[in-house]
Amino acid sequence: MSAARPLLLGLLLLIGLTVLPPEARAERISEIKKTTFAESAARFFTLRDPSLRNALIGSVLMGISCGLLGSFLVVRKLALMGDALSHAVLPGVAFGFLWNMSKDPIAIFVGATVAGLLGAGTVHLIRSTTKHKEDAALGFVLASFFALGVCVITMLNNLPNAQKSGLDKFMFGQAAALGDQDVVLMAVVTALVISVLAIGFKAFALTSFDAGFASAIGFPTQLIHYTLMLLLAFSIVVSLQAVGVVLVSAMLITPAAAAFLLTDRLKPMLALSALFGMAAGAIGSFLSFVGNDMPTGPLMVLAGSAVFAVALLFGPRHGIVARWLRQRSRSGRTRRENTLKALYHVLERREFKGDDVSIRELAEQRRETEVEAKQLARELVRHRLATTNDSGEALYLTPAGWQRACEIVRNHRVWELYLTNDAQYAADHVHDDAEKVEHILGEETVREIEKRLNYATHDPHGKLIPGLADLNAAPFSGRRGARATGYGAHS
Amino acid sequence: MSLIPPFDFQRVFVEPWAEGGALHGWILAMAVLVGMACGLVGNYLLLRRMALIGDAISHSVLPGLVLAFMLAHSRHIGVMFAGALAAGLVTVFLIEFIHKKSRVKPDAAICITFTTLFAIGVVLTSLIDKGGLHIDAECILYGEIAFVPLEPPVKILGRALGPQPVLQMLGVTAGVVVLIVLFYKELLASSFDPGLTASLGFNVTAMHYGLMAALSIVVVSAFEAVGAIMVVAMLIIPGMTAAQLSDHLATRHWLVGVHSILSGLLGLHLSVWLNCSMAGAMVLTGAGFFVLAWLFSPSQGMIHRWRRPDAPGDTVSQFQ
Predict the structure, then answer these.
(1) What b/e string do you get for A30-52 counting C-beta neighbours within 10 Å, with b at 16 or more?
(2) pLDDT above 60: residue A119
(3) In the A/B pair of chains, how many CB contacts fall below 8 A?
(4) CA-based angle B69:B72:B76, to the nearest 5?
(5) Residue A187 pLDDT more than 90?
(6) DSSP letters of B161-212?
(7) Per-residue pLDDT tens over the stretch B220-245
């Protein structure tokens, strides 16, 4: 998988950073609170504090694994499964803590993974044995598992010897509380996620897009689904410390959805999603650091949402702004083509005598005011489809304008003829349809239709269809004069 | 293990009512009212397959509350309701916007919208000076139903009626009941067949937004008591349990009432026994009732299905 290679390199680099000797000592981030923004920023970027380094590496690792898995959730429409699972692991965290009354990463990891899988299993069980829909099953698992976790945690907090369990940090995340062991675990999980996805990429991609086909050609779709859920549970569990139970789902979905808006292919989507996840993680832990110990999770989520908002608005192909501009340019082109058509009609009505069209004539043809007609004329001039005389009262088509006008009228009339002759429309029902189609018919389609119509020369209303020769002729080169000509009329 | 205290009937079931009976009475009243209001609205959410919209709105009322408080510098009930309504509408609008204007699917749009709004809310709560606003991480996560009786009481004509949140919840529940009685037919029809309802001349869009508004108001009233996440449980678990037992909407409404009373009462005692979060214990009890209904429901329980695998399906039984 080519997209994974740069990620893997970055990962190795980050793991390498952990073995550098620490230069400054601060056991907890809160001890270095009283500094200015610049100092904290400098501290952050030089990575001198071991706890800070852990926080940053942890967030970045989390961004990678969540981003990769989240892409599959987004394309499989399982976004809310991520949400449900991330809440469902909470009792597992609490029971893992109960194992030997300490925040042993391994015990918590095992407990939370088991709880996550139980949650996924319960969703499946409710779906298959009751008539409740997926949303209800997900909501049930989310809320009842979370309530169980809350109960156990509050019971733990009431025990005399567990006052400082620190389990509250699992709710909203505190990347600064990541220990060395946590980071190692995160690195292992991230490496596992990357390698499993790389090995089984074809299977994961195929089952994500066409599960029916995949199972028909013998892929074990159930196994693949549960492998994905297992990896998901793993990466949710290791992310808890950094981003918190409540908001892990955002780290899964938001970067992946942003990537989904930017590309149509799965591999680039995975790479972008991992990149966005990393960025969100790093920015979130940075803000949390300079913002005096604020919870990390919400800040990471907001960083991710900002990335998503930018992709949503300014994505080059699917972005809202790009779509709007495309639409606007399309409607502008349609308006200009309608003006050209009107000019052609004016000329046609006086049998192509003279080559100037006055603004008044244009306005009459379009049934608009002269001010509006003037504006349309200006637009044509701006696009070099026409020129005006000095007073601005008369309009002359340029060769390009003439050609386009002929094309539009030809498209219109050819389409009308096609509808009446081939599609058996009544002649008085074809105009509105042709009004729309004339702007989007391509040259090849027109050739095809002309062939089917045996190169007819007149439209259903008896008007001549402009031919190839008209298109290529310079406007009013003297040869025309009497009337517009269809195919064969020249020869 | 000392984590689970030994069960002592006297301590668990008698003492809460012998000592501090009024205290526990108000807590129970609040729990039952929250369960009823949420459950009644939840019945419609389940029918319309919008359970997770409830999840989204229950998260996004947080920024609504905080922003309303910051703007108005008051925690007057009207201000809070306005904030919640605005947040609910913004949530629904954003979800629609994202999935209509881009190719992001509705599930991802829901997830992105509510996590973003919720994150804004959490950051704001940790930034602002919360003079008088009882919202912090504890409350968001665990709910503070245990502190409900300590709220200042509402006084009418010099007589203290009861703690303000309980009376507020009573008003909201009564409002929900009245609305359901008034618009029972319209809500029923538009939940099952919006197309038919629209063709009969009812305003389906108004029904939808009305339901969303009711949901926001209910959620914001229940918010401080049970927290942002367990509101979801209050919304859907009673309805899911009722749906296991009956296919008739009116019967489901009654069952939701029974469910909220039972889970409130038993949850209260469970939390006294285990010394844990009251909201959590109530949700767990409610989930326990769902599991019971899931297994033993006479019409569609697992046992029933196992004994009669060829029993007529659920959809058929509705029409017989």
Answers:
(1) eebeeeeeeebeebbeebbbbbb
(2) yes
(3) 198
(4) 70
(5) yes
(6) EEEHHHHHHHHHHHHHHHHHHHTHHHHHHHHH-HHHHHHTT--HHHHHHHHH
(7) 888 888 888 889 999 999 999 999 99
To test the contact with chain A by mutation, choose from B50, B240, B247, B276 the residue with the greatest count of A C-beta atoms within 10 A, namely B276
Domain ranges of chain A: 4-315, 319-491
> Which pLDDT score is estimated for A483?
39
Average pLDDT over residues A186-210: 91
Q: Is the pLDDT of residue A8 over 50?
A: yes
Do the chains contact at B111 and A253, CB–CB below 8 Å? yes
Ranking A354-358, B13-17, B217-221 by mean pLDDT, the lowest is: B13-17
Cross-chain residue pair A139–B55, CB shorter than 8 Å: yes
| Cβ(A73)–Cβ(B111) below 8 Å | no
Domain boundaries, chain B: 21-151+161-306
- Summarised one tens digit per residue, pLDDT across range A431-479 is 888 888 888 888 888 888 888 888 888 888 888 888 777 766 655 544 4
- Enumerate the β-bridge partners of residue B162: B154
pLDDT band at A140 (very low <50, low <70, confident <90, very high): very high
- A142 — contact with chain B (CB < 8 Å)? yes
Residue of A nearest to B107 (CA): A79
Question: CB of A124 within 8 Å of any CB in chain B?
Answer: no
**Taking CB atoms and an 8 Å limit, are B110 and A130 in contact across chains?**
no
Judged by CB atoms closer than 8 Å, whether chains meet at A79 and B105 is answered as yes
Mapped onto helix, strand or coil, the DSSP state of residue A445 is helix
Q: Which residues of B touch A171 (CB under 8 A)?
A: 137, 141
Q: Which residues of A touch B294 (CB under 8 A)?
A: 126, 129-130
Q: What number is the ipTM of this complex?
A: 0.89
pLDDT for residue A474: 55
Domain B21-151+161-306 part of CATH 1.10.3660.10: no
What is the CATH code for A4-315?
Answer: 1.10.3470.10
CATH code matching the domain that covers A319-491, chosen among 1.10.10.10, 3.90.550.10, 2.120.10.30, 3.40.50.300: 1.10.10.10
Q: Which amino acid is at A194?
A: I
